[in-house]
């Protein structure tokens, strides 16, 4: 396991303005969170299989909220967001180790016969799983289409991942004007497609695969980590809510929240 990148990022934020202490203390880390308008963070440093530093700093919510619950690195539950892509890569490489997946084979070899995916501007250049995992597939960002995929609660479980991907990629606006393998461009849908391929070759839903093959061996059950809010119904008080500081994004997310009736999303504007 690697040192959490969050720890590194925090230490680099306006580092010239603060004197950092070793080992770090809560008072020495707090200014870095304040500079980045982060209410709180759970920080852990791991070396091999040994935890060498663990600390909770700040709170679940910003100063305007009352009461404020302190961050506890052992009990606070965060939404992983794009860190979940790490699980996609691990799952894919497990399939490689089992000789079920070749990173450099055309992805259509692993997709349903009626689901063919290729770059509309470069149809003769194969897209591979390696491209998906390294964000070099040529799949871009279609924010308007992505917004239609955000659903409240656990409603996403009622959708078919393959259908969502196919609909997204059938829109030419979802592709970059560059061929696969040419340039790195961060792609949420590319990662989703890699997860779908894992589903296909593993013969199980990606959610269940992660629980059984990655989390369970680490002694993490579905009450401690999972893809459904319903997993944490008995532990809502430890869920860390979402907040937005940048006012320029406030209108966009308010509209999204109204569309989805996402009662758990809170907004903080300057």
TrEMBL record:
Coiled coil: none
Pfam families, A to Z: Beta-lactamase
Domain of life according to the entry: Eukaryota
Species for this entry: Rotaria sordida
Signal sequence extent: 1-15
Domain Beta-lactamase-related, chain residue ranges per copy: 29-221
Protein name per Swiss-Prot or TrEMBL: Beta-lactamase-related domain-containing protein
Annotated keywords: Signal
PANTHER family the record matches: BETA-LACTAMASE-RELATED DOMAIN-CONTAINING PROTEIN, D-ALANYL-D-ALANINE-CARBOXYPEPTIDASE/ENDOPEPTIDASE AMPH
Keyword Transmembrane: no
């Amino acid at each position: 396991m690697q040192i959490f990148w969050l720890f590194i990022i925090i230490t680099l934020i306006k580092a010239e303005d603060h004197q950092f202490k070793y080992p770090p203390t809560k008072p020495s880390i707090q200014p870095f969170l304040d500079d980045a308008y982060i209410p709180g963070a759970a920080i852990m440093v791991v070396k091999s299989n040994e935890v060498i530093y663990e600390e909770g700093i700040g709170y679940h919510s910003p100063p305007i909220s009352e009461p404020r619950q302190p961050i506890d690195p052992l009990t606070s539950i965060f939404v992983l967001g794009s860190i979940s892509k790490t699980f996609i890569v691990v799952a894919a490489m497990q399939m490689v180790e089992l000789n079920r997946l070749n990173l450099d084979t055309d992805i259509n070899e692993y997709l349903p016969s009626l689901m063919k995916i290729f770059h509309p501007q470069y149809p003769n250049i194969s897209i591979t799983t390696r491209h998906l995992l390294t964000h070099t597939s040529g799949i871009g960002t279609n924010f308007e289409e992505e917004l239609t995929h955000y659903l409240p609660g656990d409603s996403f479980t009622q959708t078919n991942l393959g259908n969502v991907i196919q609909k997204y990629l059938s829109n030419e606006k979802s592709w970059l004007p560059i061929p696969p393998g040419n340039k790195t461009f961060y792609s949420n849908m590319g990662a989703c497609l890699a997860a779908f391929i894992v589903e296909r070759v593993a013969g199980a839903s990606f959610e269940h695969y992660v629980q059984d093959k990655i989390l369970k061996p680490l002694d993490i059950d579905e009450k401690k980590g999972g893809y459904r809010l319903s997993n944490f119904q008995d532990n809502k008080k430890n869920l860390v809510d979402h907040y937005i500081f940048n006012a320029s994004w406030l209108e966009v997310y308010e509209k999204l929240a109204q569309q989805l009736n996402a009662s758990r999303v809170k907004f903080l504007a300057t």
